[in-house]
Amino acid sequence: MVNQTLLLQLIQDIESEYLEFSDEFYSSNDINRIKNLKKYGIGKALKDNYFMFKLLPMYRKTLMSINFDLCFMNYIINYDFRIRIKLSDSIHIKLKHYHYLEKKHGTFYIGKSLNDIWGARIVIPNVNNDIDELKELFDTLSTKDNNFKYYIKNNGSYRAVHCYFQAENKYFPWELQIWDVQDKVMNTQSHDIHEKEKRMY
Whole-angstrom Cα distance, residue 16 to residue 10? Predict the structure, then answer.
């Protein structure tokens, strides 16, 4: 059976760090120009010098100044758990990729496209076997907690639960991915292919 107690505690710990970081970062009036990332299109963002050359670099720099490994050391030591902060080059590649897709499918928004500048992943057993119980748990959690949303991604070559934390529309979201142990190899390969495809645009 999947360890629901572990996942609930991890979600609470990430949310706590997320809220503390976001509240402090956005308390500066100098960085509050963009009020709603869910309505801020990729094309517009790419042309916005403030967004590209001030807000994004400052956000990454502030994230990099915090030792998140220390904050989550218990998970790192005891589980297959990792944290990463997206590289600047990776952010720009992702934005250009979605800008290319915008030309075909219409506007993509920063709030949904750039939702993993801070990301964590945990790999545990029985996620697939107990996916219905997890859905019930996360449905209840997302109903009670406006900061938490999730979706289940399954395209055949990649299976995972993606959880997102966003307290206000002007805050960048953080992401937690929950993988089943049996999907780790295939998910890693699928992720690598997807990253290479994004570099084509």
Answer: 10
For residue 49, which phi and psi values (nearest 5 degrees)? -60, -35
Task: Give the angle subtended at the CA of 81 by the CAs of 189 and 175, to the nearest 5°.
Answer: 75
> For each of the chain's 201 residues, which pLDDT tens digit applies?
999 999 999 999 999 999 999 999 999 767 888 999 999 999 999 999 999 999 999 999 999 999 999 999 999 999 999 999 999 999 999 999 888 888 777 888 999 899 999 999 999 999 999 999 999 999 999 988 889 999 999 988 899 999 999 999 999 999 999 999 999 999 998 876 655 655 555
Strands 118-124 and 174-180: parallel
Residues near 87 by Cβ (< 8 Å), separated by ≥ 6?
A: none
Of 157, 151, 2, 132, the C-alpha closest to 79 is 2
- The DSSP output letter for 142 is H
- For residue 155, what are the CA distances in angstroms to 158, 159, 160? 6, 7, 10
